[in-house]
Every structure is written in C-alpha cells, then in structure tokens.
Design brief:
It is a single chain. The chain is an all-alpha fold. It is elongated, with a radius of gyration of 19 Å. 76% of the residues lie in helices and 0% in strands.
Length: 190
C-alpha cells in the first residue's frame, strides 16, 4: 500500500471504529486491524489515540459543506438545511456526533477541537450565505451572521444529533420558512 493509501485506510478505520464502539472503547489495535496495517503505521502518524481522533475528526468537521448560491436566501437556506440534515443523518455521523459530544463534556481538549471546527464552519456559512442575502437586500443590513447561523442550523443539530427525532421534507420547509421570517422580522441584532 502507498503511504497515502495507508493514511486513508487508517482514517476510514478510525471513523468506522468511532461509529461502532465510541471513543472510550476505541483502540489503536482495533484501528490497525480494521485498516489492515500494523500499529507502527499509526504511531508514525500520531503519538496517541486522542491526537489521532482529534486530527481525523477535525479534518472531517472542517470539510467545507457546499455553500449554495441559488440566487435567493430562501433557496440557499432550504438547500443548506437539506445538505446539513443529510450529513447529520449519515450512518457514521449519527453515531459519532453524540459520542464525541459526550466525550467533549469530559475532555477539554476534545471540546476545544470540536468548538474550533464548528466555529470555522459557522463563520463560513455566515459570511457566504447571510452575507449574500444582506447584499441582495433580502435580510436587514444589521443581521448578525452568527445568530442567523444558530437559527438556521441549531434546530437541525438539536433534532437530529441530540433528540434524534426523524425529520421529513415538510419539516425542512417549515423550518426554513420560520427562520426566514424570524431573520427578516428581527434583523438578528445581538
């Protein structure tokens, strides 16, 4: 296997192990076995389990979600909610996210890493989608991008990652209508 292939196999193995057994029971041995590599291949890349998991999960969390540009805030909002809801319902993500949130409550290093990754994503969404809507005159000039993103994505995280309640397309449509109305009415000032 080439070096890049080995790293990809390890990353894939980590994500699958996290989904199956959680962070607490994840072991370097199990990751190596699943990846089809020796433990030394892992230790050449990361010095311990925490470092390995944080780097791999951060890379996944920081991957840019495609930023819609449908020409309208309503269209962008609906498409973004659809993309994020599908990502949160993914078989692996739906197992890993709750587990890592629980670990973050016990481990400040995990909490800090997750917050940094999520904050980076939130700022990108705010700058792009909310910024475009303000420029087009669809949202008030004083719209707070951070609060807007909280309103746009917070209910999806709550529903899919915390309460684990299924959603359908009607839910996304009603949620986007409610968020749009709230942002237009309040100006989302902080």
């Amino acid at each position: 296997m080439l070096r890049g292939d080995i790293t990809a196999a390890i990353r894939n193995a980590v994500m699958n192990e996290l989904a199956e057994v959680g962070y607490g029971r994840l072991s370097i041995e199990a990751v190596a076995r699943r990846a089809g590599v020796g433990k030394t291949a892992i230790y050449r890349r990361w010095s311990n389990k925490l470092e390995m998991v944080l780097e791999i999960v951060s890379a996944v969390a920081e991957r840019s979600v495609p930023m819609p540009d449908t020409g309208s805030f309503a269209g962008d909002l609906q498409l973004l909610m659809f993309i994020v809801s599908k990502a949160l319902q993914h078989r692996i993500a739906s197992q890993i996210i709750p587990d890592l949130m629980a670990e973050a409550a016990r481990n400040p290093k995990i909490a800090e890493t997750l917050q940094r990754a999520l904050r980076t994503h939130q700022q990108a969404v705010g700058e792009k989608i909310v910024g475009q809507a303000v420029t087009r005159g669809e949202l008030p000039a004083n719209t707070n991008p951070d609060l807007a993103v909280d309103l746009m994505l917070g209910p999806l995280y709550w529903r899919l990652a915390v309460s684990r309640t299924p959603i359908d397309d009607d839910y996304l449509e009603h949620l986007s209508t409610a968020v749009l109305g709230a942002l237009r009415a309040s100006g989302s000032t902080s």
